[in-house]
């Protein structure tokens, strides 16, 4: 006889960096942009055979050109589960007059948001908010980004790259408030962002230190999921797990995606293709 403890609290699907475009592959980087349509369709077929609460794509839906959304978004129409997106740097590789349309094009009324499933709060960040590429021309966030990037370069930071970015101070305050609200409601938390923050890497968010400090200081935060670094990465700080999922666009034939299962004492990551399987032990909530 089975009991409730024999089943996970919830399952959900993860896709990172399809980075689709109708363009020739970049052989040197092993990126095969056009093949992401078939890879995504394969992942969705697997997801549709699973009992999932939702599927989320961790940014870089496209590689470039606003019209690329017209090809890849219909692939998601066959998904039988609730679908979420967050945005990556390549999603803003569009004509300047289309920058303000990107979030709406993928169905987002706000570029950062949260939702709750089975006692877990999922917080989706817009890691591009302060950048040299995502805000409209003349927006104050571009000037803030230029100063931050200059400071990082002066200090020799490995993530001082113009393809990186960070949330605004306002969004960071909102993140802190969301974590506090989750604690008050007795919820556990998973934060998701396009940009990794740990282990240290050239692809990390510019404000990696303050994100790590906030998440590790709050016991109810179990994990931080990201994309952007297509090679993937993983580390744990004070019981908070930082998992960077591998990029779907990489390799000519290999795929990569995951089903995540949340149990009372652990998170199980079931990797497909190049994605690794992992067991992430949950630290005790406060």
Structure description:
The chain is an alpha/beta fold and 286 residues long. It has a single domain, classed as Metallo-dependent phosphatases (Purple Acid Phosphatase, chain A, domain 2, 4-Layer Sandwich). Helix content is 22%, strand content 22%. It contains 6 helices and 12 strands. The strands form 2 sheets. The chain has a 6-stranded mixed sheet. Helix 6 links the parallel strand 6 and strand 7. The protein is globular and about 50 Å long. The mean pLDDT is 96.
SSE topology string = EHEHEHEEHHEHEEEEEE
The CATH topology is given as Purple Acid Phosphatase, chain A, domain 2
CATH class call: Alpha Beta
CATH architecture: 4-Layer Sandwich
How are the SSEs placed, and which strands pair?
Elements: E1 10-15, H1 36-48, E2 54-57, H2 68-72, E3 82-85, H3 102-105, E4 113-117, E5 120-124, H4 140-155, H5 169-184, E6 188-192, H6 208-216, E7 221-226, E8 233-237, E9 240-244, E10 256-262, E11 266-273, E12 278-281
Task: Give the key terms.
single chain; 286 residues; alpha/beta; Purple Acid Phosphatase, chain A, domain 2; 6-stranded mixed beta sheet; 12 strands
Short description:
With 286 residues, the protein is an alpha/beta fold. Helices cover 22% and strands 22% of the residues.
């Amino acid at each position: 006889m089975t009991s409730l403890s024999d089943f996970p609290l919830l399952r959900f699907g993860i896709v990172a960096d399809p980075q689709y475009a109708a363009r020739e592959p970049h052989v040197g980087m092993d990126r095969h942009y056009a093949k992401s349509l078939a890879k995504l369709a394969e992942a969705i077929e697997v997801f549709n055979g699973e009992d999932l609460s939702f599927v989320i794509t961790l940014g870089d839906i496209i590689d470039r050109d606003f019209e690329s959304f017209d090809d890849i978004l219909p692939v998601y129409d066959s998904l039988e589960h609730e679908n979420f997106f967050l945005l990556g740097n390549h999603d803003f590789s569009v004509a300047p007059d289309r920058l303000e349309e990107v979030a709406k094009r993928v169905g987002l009324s706000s570029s950062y948001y949260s939702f709750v499933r089975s006692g877990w709060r999922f917080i989706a960040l817009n890691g591009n908010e302060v950048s040299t590429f995502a805000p409209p021309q003349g927006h104050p966030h571009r000037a803030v980004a230029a100063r931050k990037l200059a400071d990082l370069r002066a200090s020799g930071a490995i993530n001082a790259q113009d393809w990186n970015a960070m949330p605004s101070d306002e969004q960071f305050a909102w993140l802190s408030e969301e974590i506090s609200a989750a604690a008050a409601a007795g919820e556990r938390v998973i934060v998701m962002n396009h940009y990794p923050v740990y282990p240290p890497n050239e692809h990390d968010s510019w404000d990696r230190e303050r994100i790590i400090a906030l998440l590790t200081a709050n016991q109810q935060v179990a994990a931080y999921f990201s994309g952007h670094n297509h090679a993937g990465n993983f580390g744990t700080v004070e019981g908070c797990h930082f998992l960077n999922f591998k990029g779907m666009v990489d390799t000519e034939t290999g795929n990569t995606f995951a089903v995540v299962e949340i149990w009372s004492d652990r998170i199980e990551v079931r990797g497909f293709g190049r994605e690794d399987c992992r067991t992430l032990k949950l630290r005790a909530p406060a």
